Amino acid sequence: MSFLERLLAEIDNAGITKNKLLTDLELSKNSFVAWSKRGTVPSGETLDKLANYFGVTIDYLLGRTDDPTPPDKQKPSAEAEGLTETQRRVYDMVKHLPDDKAAEAIDYVQYLIDKQADRSK
Question: Fewer CB in 10 Å around end: N or C, the chain?
Answer without folding.
Answer: C
